[in-house]
Amino acid sequence: MTANTSLVTGASGFIASHVVQQLLKKGEQVHATVRSTKNKKKIKHLLDMQERWPGKLTLFEADLLAAGSFEAPMRDCSVVYHIASPFFIENRIHDGQKEVVEPALKGTQHVLDSVQKCETVKVVVLTSSVAAIFGDNADVLEMKNKTLSSEYFNTTSTVNYNAYPYSKVVAEKEAWRIYKEQTSPPRWKLVTINPGLVLGPSLSPTSESGSLSLLDQLLRGQLFLGVPDMWFAIVDVREVATAHIQAAECPDSHGRYILADSKTHGFVELARILRSITQSSRIPKNKIPNALVHICGPMLRLSQKWLRLNLSIPFDIDNRPSLDQLKIVYRPLEETLADHYRSWKSAHSVSH
């Protein structure tokens, strides 16, 4: 029976909930870790899944910072999806080392230490990020053909500048180091999924995913004067979940997979699509001139350096491995944003 038991870490999170749901739909046994099984509100969507797929989903408590806490949940699993990691909005991080780098790094070490001890595990799929490949949009201009590619690692972020991207590159590099330390031939395979900005419907009513706060401000009408000329690599959460599962199931999957459209999308494009979906005049359809954004930078807690290296820099993305090897079909951005908005709206009607 061990063939189809998977462990999903951080299961109550935005991406992980979708991975759990897709695995259950395929009829698999899932072990899922959460910080606390007592926080019923936060794990309600997982409890609902337990009812819908009786006997298929087992919840465990585990703490990224506690060594050994993943050993019991991992027992008899053949695949480990390590998705749990802290996510913060950059300008709200006070102590990068303590808030993001240590949990990301220690969490990866603790999960992979358990993998080393657990003989049944054959595949580890690690959720990384495009942030492990580049820190600022300007970094991509230095890459071959000015195209984001999985052969690069982020070298410009530090614990004091772009601490979240730094935590992703540190954790991913550590995972590759531990993987390579196995005796040959390796018992378990490592694959990383490196998504862009992940949008789409949330299964969890309390998702605190930082990636959503920009859109949250947009949907609340806080950016009605206009949006900065920022560009994002974007992907739907459902494609990200599917990519995790395909990476585990495809015998030829290897290395790192960028999950995103082949081109970046401008913030103003997102705003215009959402304006037409919501019919709200509080959502702008115009960009704010860069000069003005630089002046307002301090109020947004964005440094001049960050603005200089990110404003008005779109780029291309090499997502072919995700298409060819993982057979991902990217849905239209309009559909992602419509579903994102619907889920945002229902979450806000619940909480207010």
From TrEMBL:
Classification via Pfam families: Epimerase
GO molecular-function term, one example from the UniProt record: oxidoreductase activity, acting on the CH-OH group of donors, NAD or NADP as acceptor
Superkingdom field: Eukaryota
SUPFAM superfamilies referenced in this protein's UniProt entry, alphabetically: NAD(P)-binding Rossmann-fold domains
Keywords (A to Z) from UniProt: Oxidoreductase
Keyword match Oxidoreductase: yes
Record-annotated NAD-dependent epimerase/dehydratase domain positions: 7-253
Oxidoreductase among keywords: yes
Family label: Belongs to the NAD(P)-dependent epimerase/dehydratase family. Dihydroflavonol-4-reductase subfamily.
PANTHER family linked to this entry: NAD DEPENDENT EPIMERASE/DEHYDRATASE, STEROL-4-ALPHA-CARBOXYLATE 3-DEHYDROGENASE, DECARBOXYLATING
Name of this chain's protein: NAD-dependent epimerase/dehydratase domain-containing protein
